[in-house]
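This part of the workshop introduces the protein records we will be handling. A learned vocabulary of local backbone shapes supplies the integers on the structure line. Getting from the letters to the tokens is the skill we practise here. As an example, a complete record with its sequence and its structure tokens follows.
=====
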Amino acid sequence: MHNHTEQQQLITRLFQNWSNEEPLDIQALPPSGSDRKYFRISYTKGTVIGAYNPVKQENHAFLSFTRHFHEKGLPVPEILAEDQENFVYLQEDLGDTTLFSLLPHSREQVLFEDSIVDLYKTILDQLPRFQIMGAQGLDFSACFPRHAFDRNSMMWDLNYFKYYFLKLAGILYDEQKLEDDFQAFCDYLLEADSTYFLYRDFQSRNIMIRNCKPYFIDYQGGRKGALQYDIASLLYDAKANIHPRQREELLDYYIQAVKQHISIDEQKFRDHFYGFVIIRIMQAMGAYGFRGFYEKKALFLQSIFYAKRNLHWLLENNKVPQHVPYLRHILYEIIASPALKKYDKPSSGLKVSIRSFSYKKGFPVDESGNGGGFVFDCRSLPNPGREQAYKKLTGKDSTVIEYLEKEPAVKDFLEDTTSLVEKSVRTYLDRGFTHLMVCYGCTGGQHRSVYSAERLAEHLSRQYDVTIDLQHNEQLSWPS
């Protein structure tokens, strides 16, 4: 595996060969949970993304799938250049706005605004096209590490859950009884039609939003499988924290979207859907255990709370198949486990209150009584509120986000302010402090300050074990 400098050199060389010019700037993007490294390259015509991934088979899968999807007219990043021998490629830059970044950052299940629900529906219009149209003519031999979500894949996920979550969380189980139910559970899931493209990690951080439209990324783990897995992944995405009522509404919408392409037995589809929800949650819990219990990365343990709450809903609403009684028992044991109850609240105890406000109406009140914290002035930044097209929009609207993300001054401002806040967050966590307040102000409290507050909330919720309390003080007075 190449070091950071070598990775950047390989990407720079590929970029030079493709563009016939030198990059103006290369910035490493925040690391993901894999060995893949991403760089944003600025040049005279804009920006592109350079990627380095030392796993050659995974690169082949991603590039092969992307070319195929692009030919089908599906919303994926365009591949601009590639050097598979040196593990690098260039792709279209879709920006930094993920679906996750637009969601409320709260541990409580709150109903999403209509605009967010509409965005989900736009995504669900596209998902069956990937799964059904995308599977037609796709070279499934390029899949890595497995060509299909078959019995072997399912058992890998179930054993991952057993050894990295149950074992490390101290949940006692009967090995043979659990193995018997795992096999019966696989038999049940394999009844579903599995001739479609299964994205594998279809969740809110892998959906980019640009010009109000969704684009899909990170499908290199895709394989042949059932339709239900991906919609289960999206609707039960842990930190997206979708309210049960809206999950059911979106499931209904997705089923109707599928029917635009193929005929399905709706009742059988729904029955199997909840089975795939359960295996997806167990796979995710295996990852929480591996990253959190084994690798000691406390951030991953935050998601146990959401997974437990989803399991409780499934059990209480009789969505666990009746013919796996021991598995049902184990899921109840997880919910009741005294050792896991400590994850029901943020382990750090640190609450970060983030506010946007208008300087015309004064500073936000620190209701904690601690005083202090940060107040950042956004008024020096380019102001979309001066343009008629944006006057009735806010810093949460995708067109305003795109306007601001194109401005280097905004990027620098966010990097600087985020760096300052992060230093305090780390110190507060080390010293056991319980509250930090961060405020972003602009003239009307509508565009720049809202955008900045949203980006900080997204970053901190992704990187730290803290509770985020995000409020926009001028929201009630925004034009309709």
